[in-house]
Design a protein that fits this description.
Blueprint (H helix, E strand, L loop, with lengths): L12 E5 L11 H9 L2 E4 L2 H10 L6 E3 L5 H13 L4 E3 L13 H9 L3 E5 L4 H9 L6 E6 L4 H11 L5 E6 L4 H12 L3 E6 L7 E6 H6 L8 E5 L12 H13 L4 H12 L3 H12 L1
Parallel strand pairs: 1-4, 1-5, 2-3, 2-4, 6-7
Antiparallel strand pairs: 7-10, 8-9, 8-10
This protein binds S-adenosylmethionine (SAM).
């Protein structure tokens, strides 16, 4: 066990700084201070981040941290922390790690006992979710779905019976295909498309999957899909495999089996006794 009291030690710190997803005035004074005062800023693209930082008159040392090159990138940052330097990790927009690079270095830096400190800011997932009008809790953040049709459909089938609101990131040139898959697999549920968040052309399209699919050709810019969960009576249309997976994932995360069954039963509405029988029948 490692306890981190973020501001009560002298250890080098890896700051995870959220940067604006559109509107530059969303960079907080705290974030600007940290970006100005760390020894190094690790970013995805030094040119993109360099421009953003210039806007705030921040002229600090930039190094590049790449998803496809996470091993050496993470090692480089761990070396800097080991030399006593403070490092800020940023992505092109929003939070690092949220469908952006950074997982490896955060896992390693925290395991090695360095401070890992989040610095708040905007993220497309939360902006889209809170303004969607759909039920916010519980929600599942999926991020990008696979781009190949088969893979995407397989993934969506896994989510078909999930009762919680789901959030997908999607690129504009795949939005139509993605909505088509959603329509085929989920049916015509309530759905919200959040576009160009925090920018001048910000738009929320609140409707159903089919309605949004029908206008998808005209949609441009950065997009988030917020999808209503399965509102059918769960036990009638139950996907037992999904229920068992939900329990197993909680157990793998360290929750006791009976608590996992209790949680999944309360989220899905299936009876605790029935779920218990299902999980045990799988064991036998
Ligand atoms: N790290 C970012 C975050 O915290 O939201 C996400 C980066 S991910 C590579 C880029 C995707 O995020 C886009 O394809 C889009 O789905 C979503 N996104 C980012 N900025 C957005 C915006 N201003 N409006 C809508 N979606 C946005």
């Amino acid at each position: 066990m490692i306890r981190q009291k973020s501001f009560e030690n002298e250890k080098p710190t890896l700051y995870l700084v959220a940067t604006p997803i559109g509107n530059l005035s969303e960079l907080s004074p705290r974030a600007a201070d940290i970006l100005r005062n760390v020894n190094v800023i690790a970013c995805e693209d030094t040119r993109t981040s360099g421009q953003m930082l210039k806007h705030f008159d921040i002229h600090n040392r930039l190094i590049s941290y790449q998803n496809f090159n996470e091993d050496p990138s993470a090692r480089g940052i761990i070396n800097l922390l080991s030399q006593g330097q403070n490092v800020a990790l940023i992505s092109d927009a929003g939070y690092p790690l949220i469908n952006d690079p950074g997982q490896r270095v955060v896992t390693e830096a925290s395991a090695l006992g360095f401070n890992v400190v989040p610095v708040s800011g905007s993220s497309a997932v939360l902006n889209a979710l809170v303004a969607s009008g759909l039920v916010v809790q519980p929600f599942l953040f999926v991020g990008f779905l696979p781009s190949a049709d088969n893979e995407r459909n397989r993934r969506l089938r896994e989510f078909r019976s999930y009762p919680m609101t789901m959030v997908f990131y999607e690129s504009p040139h795949r939005i139509k295909k993605c909505l088509k898959s959603c329509l085929e697999i989920f049916g015509d549920r309530r759905c919200v498309l959040a576009r160009e968040l925090t920018k001048v052309h910000e738009e929320f399209i609140r409707g159903t999957v089919k309605e949004i699919y029908e206008i998808a050709d005209d949609l441009k810019g950065e997009m988030v899909i917020v999808m209503e969960g399965n509102k059918d009576d769960y036990p009638k249309d139950v996907d037992y495999g999904t229920l068992i997976t939900m329990v197993s994932e909680k157990v793998a995360a360290g929750i006791s089996r009976s608590d996992a069954i209790k949680d999944v039963a309360s989220v899905t509405g299936i009876s605790r006794r029935r779920l218990y029988e299902l999980v045990h029948s799988k064991d036998n």
